[in-house]
Amino acid sequence: MKDRDEARARLKGIFNITMTPFAKDGTIDKKGLASNVERVASLGYDGVLIGGTYGEFPTMTVAERADIFHVVMDVLGNRIPAMLCSAGSDPRDVVELTKLAGDLGGVPMVTAPYVSEITDDQIVEFFRDVAPLSKTGIIIYNAPGIGITLSPALINRLADLDGMVGLKQGDLNPTAIDRIANDMRGRVSTFAASDLAFLGPVMAGFDGFSTTNSGALPELILATYRAVEAGDARTARDLHALWYDYRALARAHGQPQVVKAAMNMRGFDGGSVRLPLRDVPDAVLPKLRAVMEKLADDERAKLKLAA
User: Fold this and answer.
1) What's the CATH fold of domain 4-241?
2) What are the residues whose beta carbons fall under 8 Å from the beta carbon of 182, sequence distance 6 or more?
3) pTM above 0.90, yes or no
4) What is the pLDDT of residues 247-278, one digit of tens each?
């Protein structure tokens, strides 16, 4: 993407949160990453999100993160938008990665600095400083799991800053969702941060959502969202219900871990997680395979397992 206007126009729909496949020794499988991106682009996903929380960015160096930005943008070109997570605890890292993300044609995604006792005014000034660094604008990443939970009132202030083009909202409290869906309409593109419970935010008026588990279930989750787009709430509900047993395992054992294990069962490039995370325990894998086999037996899921 060349500028903020293009980013605003194209930031909508279903975005795959692409897994970063690590080898057992912790090295990044760049070929596998490229394959994962190409898969969802070819299926018709509206965009990808690279190096976010479930992409395990906190375990990577700045150089590694920059490297995967290059790999992904080389694969995609300008076919579909890419959110490139440039968040970090050190503002110097955020500055470097935010500049790079915009220069490559992606849209940088930035969290508030996760340091103790930072004030709302300081958060606003941080975003004011970072926004001009990217020609494609900035996506506000409200990520309660790794830092501060931004209130709807603070998000409202941030949306007024020059250069804000999107919001990835991790706090899915219904009251917060209702306020944000209505306050942000026409100002920044709004994305629900989780596919575990995306139907509510999208029906409330969010512009789209990002999906981790589409790494393992890309056809099913895409079909669910397309049903929502078509106004077919009943079909969307029924398709979402299909993978409840999978969601239960993901909640119990961690999403990147379960997604990667399920991807490997499908012959995709899931790889391993990187420490301090641990791969799904061997004792859990038969349960996951049983869930995946059940989905494969239902033609609505459009899912095939590797031999």
Assistant:
1) TIM Barrel (3.20.20)
2) 205
3) yes
4) 999 999 999 999 999 999 999 999 999 999 99
